[in-house]
Amino acid sequence: MTESDTPLRLGWEEWVALPGLGLPALKAKVDTGARTSALHAFDIETFGSINRPKVRFAVHPVPGRTDLTIACSAAIKDRREVTSSNGEAELRYVIETDLAVGGTSTPIEVTLTDRGTMAYRMLLGRQAIQSDWVVAPAESFCQEKLSYDIYSTARVKQAAPKRALRIAVLSREDNYSTRRLVAEGEERGHTIEVIDTTRCYMAINALAPEIHYDGARLPRYDAVIPRIGASVTSYGTAVLRQFETIGTYCVNGSAGITASRDKLHAHQLLARHKIGMPQTAFAASPKDTDNIIGLVGSGPLIIKLLESTQGKGVVLAETKKAAQSVIDAFRGLKANFLVQSFVKEAAGEDIRCLVVDGKVVAAMKRTAGGDDFRSNLHRGGKASAVRITKAEREAALKSAKLFGLGLAGVDLLRSEDGPKLLEVNSSPGLQGIEEATGKNVAAHLFDAIEKHVRPRPVRKRRGA
Fold first, then answer.
1. In CA terms, which of 41, 89, 252, 373 is 20 to 30 Å from 449?
2. What is the mean pLDDT of residues 388-404?
3. Architecture of the CATH domain 7-159
4. 0.85 exceeded by the pTM?
C-alpha cells in the first residue's frame, strides 16, 4: 500500500480547521457515538431572504478566551432537532462547510450550538468521518498539530473568507444612491436593509442600549451606511451615535457628519489644519456687515447660509451694495451665514473628489449651466471626468481624514494659488460621479466595508 493509499487516522481528539468560516485552528473531540458534528456558536441570528436564508454567529475559538471573537456567516441548509449526550433536545441550525484535517478537505454538515462550557469548541460526529478514515479511540492528535497562536497574527485576517454581511443603509429617500448601494451589496451576497432614520427610536441605558424600528428591536448589523439628509442631521446623528454605542461599524461617524454639516465649524477646522479655502468671514451683529465685507474683499462676494445644501441658500453678490442687501435680508430671516470671496478664475467650475476609505476613487469636474455660477448637478450643472493634481488629491484626502469620514465628497475650486476647498459632503450622491467617470464607486465602498468588518487579530495577552 502506498503512502497516498494510507487511510487518514484520527485520534479521539484532533486539530482541525474550518477555513470557510475563518477558523484556521480548532481542537475537536472525535465522537463516533454522535451522529452530527457540532460547532460552538453564540449570538446566532438569521438574516437574508426567505428563499436564501443565512445565519450569522460568533465563535470563541480558544477555550477561556472570551476576548477573541470570530464573526461567521453561512447559508442555512436545514434546521433539525438534536439530542445531546445528557438527553436534552435542541432545535439547531445546520450549515455546510469544509473540514480541513490531515492535509485533506471535505464538506461536512455542522450544527450550531453554544459549547462555551465545553473543553472542545467542536465535536466531530460520525457523519463527518469518511468511509476510508480510521478512528483510533486510544490515541490523540494523530494528524498535524496546529496552534491557537495563529489568531494573534495578521495571517488570520488575511485568510478570513468574505462572509455575507448584514448592512443597514440609513436613508429616507428612494433615490439612485440608495438603490445602487442595495444592488451592489446584494450582488456581493450581502443583505442590505434600508432604514428610515426618523422612524428609529432608542432605549438609552448603560447595560443594554438598543435601537427600535416599527415596534421591534433592530437586529445586529455588521455595518451601517449613513445617508442622513441635512434636514434631519440632529436626529440622524443621534441614531448613528446609538449604533456606535453598541459597537456597529459605521462608514461615517456621527461626529464627522455633525462637524461637516456645520459650515462655520467645518471652515474653522479646515483653517486650523491649513487647508486652502476662499477667504471667509462670519459675524453675528448687524453693525459688523461692512467689516466682514471688508475682510473678504469688495466684490463679487458669496453669501452662504450655514445650512445650505445642493447650492440652495448660496447667493452671488456682484457689488458691495448688493452684498449689503443680501446680508440684511438674511439677518431679517434670523439666518446664520458666511461671507466668502469669489474665485473668479474658477469660471463656474468646481472639482468633486469622491474619497472612500482614505483613497480618491473618482473625480469629476462640474460646470455651471447657463448663467448660473453654481455648478451643482441638482441645479443643472454638467459633469465630466477630470484628472486631478497632486495638490488637489492631498487636499481631498486630508479633509476627509480630518472629519473622520470613510465616504466623502470633497468639493474644490481651482484658483491661481492652488486648490480652494468649498465643502466636505458626508452623504455624496453617487449618480453624477458614476455616470461621469464610468467608475463603480459603490463597489469601492463595499470593498472598504468588507475589509473593516473582517476578523481582526488580537495581541497575545502577557503571560498567556
1. 41
2. 96
3. Beta Barrel (2.40)
4. no
